[in-house]
Design goal:
By secondary structure, this protein is an alpha+beta fold. It has a domain of about 110 residues: Gcn5-related N-acetyltransferase (GNAT) (Aminopeptidase). It has 4 helices and 7 strands; from the N terminus they run ββααβββαβαβ. It has a 7-stranded mixed β-sheet with strand order 2-3-4-5-6-1-7, with helices on both faces. Strand 4 and strand 5 form a beta hairpin. About 25% of the residues are buried.
Amino acid sequence: MAIEPDIQKVKTSIHVWHLEMTSRPETSEPDTHPYQLLKVEHPLPELNRFLYATVGAPCMWYMRLPWKWQQWQDYVAKKSIETWVAYQGATPIGYFELEKQPRGSTEVAYFGLIPEFVGQGLGRQLLQDAINKAWDTADNRIWLHTCTLDHANALPNYLNRGFKVFKEEDFEDMIPAEPLQPWEGAAKPA
């Protein structure tokens, strides 16, 4: 969904928490998962855009929606980017993107569940998988950020998994006035 110029926007204050983990946590997570986690081996801009738009719609992920195909292609083709998708059967339920950065750091750039799978206890396990995979590529630090537009459980989930806040900031931005949808008419009737 591209944000068209005629879509009503409102000026909104947004609070951002930057969180980090500077050592791999010891975990006692189960070896069994309620999903299969697969790394995307061939970069597909269409797949990443689908995941971004679908997972991010309820949390107002709006910044990349206007990207053209080539911008998505350039992003997902970077050697520093990994996309991991969780599936139940053949159905994607969520994903995360990791970005290896200079000086031994890896960012959990995007993380979330497709809305139909929120509230089923899957986010905790998927986040633990994101942490483990990020540590597989990081030397000394993994980090991410979340904000007041994200799901209400995002910050508590990150803190409960061992992330610590290292920076907070506030900014204002023009965001869509209405909740986003992956495409026109996708919102479920109330």
